[in-house]
Design a protein that fits this description.
The structure is a homotetramer. In chain A, a hairpin with a 2-residue loop joins β1 and β2. Chain A has a two-stranded antiparallel ribbon with strand order 1-2. The first copy, chain A, has a domain of 67 residues. Chain A is mostly helical. The first copy, chain A, is elongated and about 70 Å long. Chain A has three helices and two strands, in the order ββααα. Chains A, B, C, D: Belongs to the UPF0335 family. Chains A, B, C, D: It holds the Pfam family GapR_DNA-bd.
Protein backbone atom coordinates (compact mmCIF):
# COMPACT_ATOMS: atom_id res chain seq x y z
CA UNK A 1 0.00 0.00 0.00
CA UNK A 2 1.51 3.26 -1.02
CA UNK A 3 1.12 6.01 1.45
CA UNK A 4 0.70 9.71 0.76
CA UNK A 5 -1.28 12.85 1.14
CA UNK A 6 -4.97 12.55 0.69
CA UNK A 7 -6.13 16.11 0.96
CA UNK A 8 -9.00 16.67 -1.43
CA UNK A 9 -7.86 16.89 -5.04
CA UNK A 10 -4.18 16.52 -4.27
CA UNK A 11 -3.84 12.82 -4.94
CA UNK A 12 -1.74 12.21 -8.02
CA UNK A 13 -3.34 9.67 -10.39
CA UNK A 14 -0.68 7.05 -9.69
CA UNK A 15 -1.82 6.96 -6.06
CA UNK A 16 -3.63 3.63 -5.87
CA UNK A 17 -5.40 4.14 -2.61
CA UNK A 18 -7.19 7.00 -0.91
CA UNK A 19 -6.56 7.46 2.79
CA UNK A 20 -8.66 9.24 5.37
CA UNK A 21 -6.83 10.01 8.61
CA UNK A 22 -4.09 7.59 7.58
CA UNK A 23 -6.62 4.83 6.96
CA UNK A 24 -6.57 3.02 3.61
CA UNK A 25 -10.24 3.52 3.02
CA UNK A 26 -10.78 1.22 0.04
CA UNK A 27 -8.89 -1.57 1.72
CA UNK A 28 -10.92 -1.19 4.93
CA UNK A 29 -14.18 -1.02 3.00
CA UNK A 30 -13.26 -4.10 0.99
CA UNK A 31 -12.40 -6.05 4.16
CA UNK A 32 -15.65 -5.12 5.85
CA UNK A 33 -17.83 -5.79 2.83
CA UNK A 34 -16.25 -9.17 2.17
CA UNK A 35 -16.72 -10.20 5.81
CA UNK A 36 -20.33 -9.01 5.75
CA UNK A 37 -21.04 -10.93 2.55
CA UNK A 38 -19.52 -14.14 3.93
CA UNK A 39 -21.36 -13.73 7.23
CA UNK A 40 -24.59 -13.28 5.29
CA UNK A 41 -23.91 -16.50 3.34
CA UNK A 42 -23.13 -18.26 6.59
CA UNK A 43 -26.42 -17.09 8.11
CA UNK A 44 -28.24 -18.34 5.00
CA UNK A 45 -26.57 -21.74 5.37
CA UNK A 46 -27.60 -21.90 9.03
CA UNK A 47 -31.14 -21.15 7.92
CA UNK A 48 -30.97 -23.93 5.33
CA UNK A 49 -29.70 -26.40 7.94
CA UNK A 50 -32.51 -25.40 10.28
CA UNK A 51 -35.00 -25.99 7.45
CA UNK A 52 -33.65 -29.48 6.85
CA UNK A 53 -34.03 -30.34 10.53
CA UNK A 54 -37.58 -29.00 10.42
CA UNK A 55 -38.19 -31.23 7.39
CA UNK A 56 -36.68 -34.18 9.29
CA UNK A 57 -38.97 -33.51 12.22
CA UNK A 58 -42.04 -33.34 9.96
CA UNK A 59 -40.97 -36.65 8.42
CA UNK A 60 -41.07 -38.21 11.87
CA UNK A 61 -37.34 -38.36 12.64
CA UNK A 62 -35.90 -37.46 16.03
CA UNK A 63 -33.77 -34.38 15.41
CA UNK A 64 -31.60 -34.75 18.52
CA UNK A 65 -30.74 -38.28 17.48
CA UNK A 66 -29.89 -37.15 13.94
CA UNK A 67 -27.55 -34.58 15.48
CA UNK A 68 -25.91 -37.33 17.52
CA UNK A 69 -25.55 -39.39 14.36
CA UNK A 70 -23.92 -36.52 12.47
CA UNK A 71 -21.58 -35.94 15.39
CA UNK A 72 -20.63 -39.66 15.40
CA UNK A 73 -19.96 -39.56 11.65
CA UNK A 74 -17.40 -36.79 12.20
CA UNK A 75 -15.26 -39.10 14.34
CA UNK A 76 -13.05 -41.97 13.30
CA UNK A 77 -14.89 -45.31 13.72
CA UNK A 78 -12.13 -46.51 16.07
CA UNK A 79 -12.61 -43.41 18.25
CA UNK A 80 -16.38 -43.93 18.36
CA UNK A 81 -15.86 -47.57 19.26
CA UNK A 82 -13.42 -46.76 22.05
CA UNK A 83 -15.60 -44.02 23.53
CA UNK A 84 -18.67 -46.25 23.46
CA UNK A 85 -16.76 -49.00 25.24
CA UNK A 86 -15.55 -46.57 27.89
CA UNK A 87 -18.97 -44.98 28.33
CA UNK A 88 -20.43 -48.42 28.85
CA UNK A 89 -17.73 -49.27 31.36
CA UNK A 90 -18.20 -46.04 33.32
CA UNK A 91 -21.97 -46.47 33.34
CA UNK A 92 -21.71 -49.98 34.69
CA UNK A 93 -19.15 -48.84 37.27
CA UNK A 94 -21.66 -46.26 38.48
CA UNK A 95 -24.57 -48.65 38.27
CA UNK A 96 -26.30 -46.53 35.64
CA UNK B 1 -44.39 -44.42 4.28
CA UNK B 2 -44.60 -47.73 2.51
CA UNK B 3 -42.42 -50.57 3.61
CA UNK B 4 -40.53 -53.04 1.37
CA UNK B 5 -37.33 -54.32 -0.15
CA UNK B 6 -35.09 -51.95 -1.99
CA UNK B 7 -32.63 -54.23 -3.72
CA UNK B 8 -31.38 -52.58 -6.91
CA UNK B 9 -33.96 -52.66 -9.64
CA UNK B 10 -36.42 -54.77 -7.73
CA UNK B 11 -38.57 -52.02 -6.35
CA UNK B 12 -41.97 -51.96 -7.92
CA UNK B 13 -42.68 -48.47 -9.25
CA UNK B 14 -45.30 -47.79 -6.61
CA UNK B 15 -42.80 -48.44 -3.83
CA UNK B 16 -41.52 -44.97 -3.06
CA UNK B 17 -38.99 -45.66 -0.35
CA UNK B 18 -36.99 -48.50 1.15
CA UNK B 19 -37.22 -48.88 4.91
CA UNK B 20 -34.95 -50.59 7.42
CA UNK B 21 -36.55 -51.22 10.80
CA UNK B 22 -39.36 -48.84 9.85
CA UNK B 23 -36.87 -46.12 8.92
CA UNK B 24 -37.10 -44.44 5.51
CA UNK B 25 -33.45 -45.00 4.73
CA UNK B 26 -33.05 -42.84 1.64
CA UNK B 27 -34.84 -39.96 3.28
CA UNK B 28 -32.67 -40.21 6.39
CA UNK B 29 -29.51 -40.49 4.32
CA UNK B 30 -30.51 -37.50 2.22
CA UNK B 31 -31.22 -35.40 5.32
CA UNK B 32 -27.89 -36.27 6.90
CA UNK B 33 -25.85 -35.75 3.76
CA UNK B 34 -27.44 -32.40 3.02
CA UNK B 35 -26.80 -31.19 6.57
CA UNK B 36 -23.21 -32.40 6.40
CA UNK B 37 -22.64 -30.65 3.09
CA UNK B 38 -24.09 -27.36 4.36
CA UNK B 39 -22.10 -27.63 7.60
CA UNK B 40 -18.97 -28.17 5.53
CA UNK B 41 -19.74 -25.05 3.45
CA UNK B 42 -20.36 -23.13 6.65
CA UNK B 43 -17.02 -24.23 8.06
CA UNK B 44 -15.33 -23.13 4.81
CA UNK B 45 -16.98 -19.70 5.10
CA UNK B 46 -15.78 -19.38 8.69
CA UNK B 47 -12.28 -20.17 7.45
CA UNK B 48 -12.59 -17.51 4.73
CA UNK B 49 -13.75 -14.93 7.28
CA UNK B 50 -10.83 -15.82 9.53
CA UNK B 51 -8.49 -15.35 6.56
CA UNK B 52 -9.88 -11.89 5.85
CA UNK B 53 -9.33 -10.86 9.46
CA UNK B 54 -5.76 -12.17 9.25
CA UNK B 55 -5.30 -10.09 6.10
CA UNK B 56 -6.74 -7.05 7.92
CA UNK B 57 -4.31 -7.58 10.76
CA UNK B 58 -1.36 -7.84 8.38
CA UNK B 59 -2.51 -4.63 6.73
CA UNK B 60 -2.26 -2.91 10.11
CA UNK B 61 -5.94 -2.72 11.03
CA UNK B 62 -7.23 -3.48 14.53
CA UNK B 63 -9.36 -6.58 14.15
CA UNK B 64 -11.39 -6.08 17.35
CA UNK B 65 -12.31 -2.60 16.18
CA UNK B 66 -13.31 -3.91 12.74
CA UNK B 67 -15.57 -6.40 14.51
CA UNK B 68 -17.13 -3.56 16.51
CA UNK B 69 -17.65 -1.66 13.27
CA UNK B 70 -19.35 -4.61 11.59
CA UNK B 71 -21.54 -5.06 14.63
CA UNK B 72 -22.51 -1.36 14.51
CA UNK B 73 -23.36 -1.62 10.81
CA UNK B 74 -25.87 -4.37 11.61
CA UNK B 75 -27.92 -1.98 13.73
CA UNK B 76 -30.19 0.84 12.67
CA UNK B 77 -28.35 4.20 12.87
CA UNK B 78 -30.99 5.49 15.28
CA UNK B 79 -30.42 2.50 17.55
CA UNK B 80 -26.65 3.03 17.48
CA UNK B 81 -27.15 6.70 18.24
CA UNK B 82 -29.46 5.99 21.17
CA UNK B 83 -27.19 3.35 22.68
CA UNK B 84 -24.16 5.59 22.37
CA UNK B 85 -25.99 8.40 24.12
CA UNK B 86 -27.08 6.11 26.91
CA UNK B 87 -23.63 4.53 27.27
CA UNK B 88 -22.17 8.00 27.59
CA UNK B 89 -24.76 8.95 30.17
CA UNK B 90 -24.18 5.81 32.24
CA UNK B 91 -20.42 6.27 32.10
CA UNK B 92 -20.64 9.85 33.29
CA UNK B 93 -23.08 8.81 36.01
CA UNK B 94 -20.50 6.29 37.24
CA UNK B 95 -17.61 8.69 36.78
CA UNK B 96 -16.00 6.44 34.18
CA UNK C 1 -37.41 7.39 41.16
CA UNK C 2 -37.27 10.89 42.55
CA UNK C 3 -35.33 13.46 40.62
CA UNK C 4 -33.26 16.27 42.04
CA UNK C 5 -29.94 17.93 42.62
CA UNK C 6 -27.25 15.93 44.29
CA UNK C 7 -24.57 18.50 45.02
CA UNK C 8 -22.59 17.38 48.07
CA UNK C 9 -24.44 17.90 51.30
CA UNK C 10 -27.47 19.50 49.69
CA UNK C 11 -29.64 16.46 49.44
CA UNK C 12 -32.50 16.61 51.85
CA UNK C 13 -32.74 13.39 53.88
CA UNK C 14 -35.97 12.38 52.19
CA UNK C 15 -34.13 12.17 48.84
CA UNK C 16 -33.72 8.42 48.41
CA UNK C 17 -31.39 8.35 45.46
CA UNK C 18 -28.79 10.56 43.83
CA UNK C 19 -29.17 11.07 40.10
CA UNK C 20 -26.69 12.21 37.46
CA UNK C 21 -28.24 13.21 34.17
CA UNK C 22 -31.49 11.57 35.24
CA UNK C 23 -29.72 8.31 36.05
CA UNK C 24 -30.22 6.73 39.47
CA UNK C 25 -26.50 6.38 40.09
CA UNK C 26 -26.50 4.18 43.17
CA UNK C 27 -29.01 1.84 41.62
CA UNK C 28 -26.97 1.56 38.43
CA UNK C 29 -23.74 1.05 40.36
CA UNK C 30 -25.35 -1.62 42.52
CA UNK C 31 -26.68 -3.48 39.46
CA UNK C 32 -23.30 -3.42 37.74
CA UNK C 33 -21.32 -4.43 40.80
CA UNK C 34 -23.63 -7.30 41.61
CA UNK C 35 -23.44 -8.61 38.04
CA UNK C 36 -19.65 -8.30 38.07
CA UNK C 37 -19.39 -10.16 41.37
CA UNK C 38 -21.64 -12.99 40.16
CA UNK C 39 -19.76 -13.19 36.84
CA UNK C 40 -16.52 -13.42 38.79
CA UNK C 41 -17.92 -16.27 40.90
CA UNK C 42 -19.11 -17.97 37.74
CA UNK C 43 -15.65 -17.70 36.19
CA UNK C 44 -14.15 -19.17 39.36
CA UNK C 45 -16.57 -22.11 39.17
CA UNK C 46 -15.64 -22.70 35.53
CA UNK C 47 -12.00 -22.76 36.63
CA UNK C 48 -12.82 -25.30 39.37
CA UNK C 49 -14.66 -27.51 36.88
CA UNK C 50 -11.69 -27.35 34.52
CA UNK C 51 -9.42 -28.37 37.39
CA UNK C 52 -11.56 -31.39 38.18
CA UNK C 53 -11.43 -32.50 34.54
CA UNK C 54 -7.64 -32.07 34.62
CA UNK C 55 -7.58 -34.23 37.75
CA UNK C 56 -9.78 -36.82 36.00
CA UNK C 57 -7.39 -36.89 33.07
CA UNK C 58 -4.38 -37.35 35.34
CA UNK C 59 -6.21 -40.19 37.05
CA UNK C 60 -6.52 -41.91 33.66
CA UNK C 61 -10.15 -41.20 32.88
CA UNK C 62 -11.36 -40.15 29.43
CA UNK C 63 -12.66 -36.62 29.87
CA UNK C 64 -14.87 -36.62 26.76
CA UNK C 65 -16.57 -39.77 27.98
CA UNK C 66 -17.09 -38.28 31.45
CA UNK C 67 -18.75 -35.31 29.77
CA UNK C 68 -21.02 -37.68 27.84
CA UNK C 69 -21.86 -39.42 31.10
CA UNK C 70 -22.72 -36.15 32.83
CA UNK C 71 -24.86 -35.18 29.88
CA UNK C 72 -26.69 -38.53 30.05
CA UNK C 73 -27.31 -38.10 33.78
CA UNK C 74 -29.12 -34.82 33.07
CA UNK C 75 -31.76 -36.63 31.04
CA UNK C 76 -34.60 -38.82 32.22
CA UNK C 77 -33.61 -42.51 31.99
CA UNK C 78 -36.59 -43.12 29.68
CA UNK C 79 -35.40 -40.36 27.35
CA UNK C 80 -31.87 -41.78 27.29
CA UNK C 81 -33.25 -45.24 26.57
CA UNK C 82 -35.44 -43.99 23.74
CA UNK C 83 -32.68 -41.95 22.13
CA UNK C 84 -30.25 -44.85 22.33
CA UNK C 85 -32.77 -47.14 20.69
CA UNK C 86 -33.38 -44.64 17.90
CA UNK C 87 -29.69 -43.94 17.40
CA UNK C 88 -29.11 -47.66 17.07
CA UNK C 89 -31.95 -47.94 14.59
CA UNK C 90 -30.73 -45.03 12.46
CA UNK C 91 -27.19 -46.36 12.47
CA UNK C 92 -28.31 -49.77 11.30
CA UNK C 93 -30.53 -48.18 8.68
CA UNK C 94 -27.48 -46.35 7.34
CA UNK C 95 -25.23 -49.38 7.68
CA UNK C 96 -23.00 -47.61 10.20
CA UNK D 1 -7.22 -42.20 48.45
CA UNK D 2 -7.89 -45.09 50.73
CA UNK D 3 -11.51 -45.75 51.23
CA UNK D 4 -13.19 -48.35 53.41
CA UNK D 5 -15.30 -51.34 52.77
CA UNK D 6 -17.06 -51.58 49.51
CA UNK D 7 -18.90 -54.87 49.16
CA UNK D 8 -20.89 -55.00 52.33
CA UNK D 9 -18.22 -55.53 54.97
CA UNK D 10 -16.21 -57.90 52.81
CA UNK D 11 -13.39 -55.68 51.52
CA UNK D 12 -10.08 -56.47 53.14
CA UNK D 13 -8.53 -53.35 54.71
CA UNK D 14 -5.58 -53.31 52.28
CA UNK D 15 -7.99 -52.71 49.35
CA UNK D 16 -7.50 -49.01 48.62
CA UNK D 17 -10.27 -48.52 46.15
CA UNK D 18 -13.13 -50.53 44.80
CA UNK D 19 -12.89 -51.10 41.07
CA UNK D 20 -15.51 -52.26 38.59
CA UNK D 21 -14.05 -53.40 35.29
CA UNK D 22 -10.77 -51.72 36.22
CA UNK D 23 -12.50 -48.41 36.97
CA UNK D 24 -11.86 -46.69 40.30
CA UNK D 25 -15.53 -46.30 41.05
CA UNK D 26 -15.40 -43.98 44.03
CA UNK D 27 -12.96 -41.69 42.27
CA UNK D 28 -15.12 -41.55 39.17
CA UNK D 29 -18.25 -40.95 41.22
CA UNK D 30 -16.52 -38.19 43.18
CA UNK D 31 -15.35 -36.47 39.98
CA UNK D 32 -18.79 -36.58 38.41
CA UNK D 33 -20.63 -35.44 41.51
CA UNK D 34 -18.27 -32.53 42.09
CA UNK D 35 -18.62 -31.38 38.48
CA UNK D 36 -22.40 -31.69 38.69
CA UNK D 37 -22.50 -29.68 41.91
CA UNK D 38 -20.32 -26.92 40.46
CA UNK D 39 -22.34 -26.86 37.23
CA UNK D 40 -25.49 -26.55 39.29
CA UNK D 41 -23.99 -23.60 41.21
CA UNK D 42 -22.94 -22.04 37.92
CA UNK D 43 -26.46 -22.39 36.54
CA UNK D 44 -27.82 -20.77 39.71
CA UNK D 45 -25.41 -17.84 39.26
CA UNK D 46 -26.51 -17.43 35.65
CA UNK D 47 -30.09 -17.33 36.89
CA UNK D 48 -29.17 -14.67 39.47
CA UNK D 49 -27.45 -12.57 36.80
CA UNK D 50 -30.52 -12.85 34.59
CA UNK D 51 -32.67 -11.70 37.50
CA UNK D 52 -30.50 -8.63 38.05
CA UNK D 53 -30.81 -7.69 34.38
CA UNK D 54 -34.57 -8.14 34.64
CA UNK D 55 -34.52 -5.84 37.68
CA UNK D 56 -32.41 -3.31 35.71
CA UNK D 57 -34.93 -3.40 32.89
CA UNK D 58 -37.85 -2.84 35.27
CA UNK D 59 -35.95 0.09 36.76
CA UNK D 60 -35.82 1.65 33.28
CA UNK D 61 -32.21 0.92 32.36
CA UNK D 62 -31.16 -0.29 28.92
CA UNK D 63 -29.81 -3.80 29.48
CA UNK D 64 -27.74 -3.93 26.27
CA UNK D 65 -26.01 -0.71 27.26
CA UNK D 66 -25.33 -2.04 30.77
CA UNK D 67 -23.73 -5.09 29.15
CA UNK D 68 -21.54 -2.78 27.02
CA UNK D 69 -20.57 -0.90 30.17
CA UNK D 70 -19.61 -4.09 32.00
CA UNK D 71 -17.60 -5.19 29.00
CA UNK D 72 -15.80 -1.80 28.94
CA UNK D 73 -15.00 -2.06 32.65
CA UNK D 74 -13.21 -5.38 32.01
CA UNK D 75 -10.68 -3.64 29.77
CA UNK D 76 -7.81 -1.36 30.71
CA UNK D 77 -8.81 2.31 30.33
CA UNK D 78 -5.94 2.83 27.87
CA UNK D 79 -7.23 -0.06 25.74
CA UNK D 80 -10.77 1.35 25.76
CA UNK D 81 -9.42 4.77 24.82
CA UNK D 82 -7.35 3.39 21.95
CA UNK D 83 -10.18 1.29 20.57
CA UNK D 84 -12.61 4.18 20.74
CA UNK D 85 -10.17 6.40 18.88
CA UNK D 86 -9.69 3.76 16.19
CA UNK D 87 -13.40 3.05 15.90
CA UNK D 88 -14.00 6.74 15.40
CA UNK D 89 -11.27 6.93 12.78
CA UNK D 90 -12.59 3.91 10.86
CA UNK D 91 -16.14 5.24 10.97
CA UNK D 92 -15.07 8.60 9.60
CA UNK D 93 -12.97 6.89 6.94
CA UNK D 94 -16.08 4.98 5.83
CA UNK D 95 -18.32 8.02 6.14
CA UNK D 96 -20.40 6.35 8.86
Amino acid sequence: MSRGTNKAGLDPPQQPEAEVGGIAVDRLRSIIERVERLEEERRALSGDIKDIFAEAKSAGFDVKVIRQLISLRKKEPAEVEEQETLLDLYRRALGM
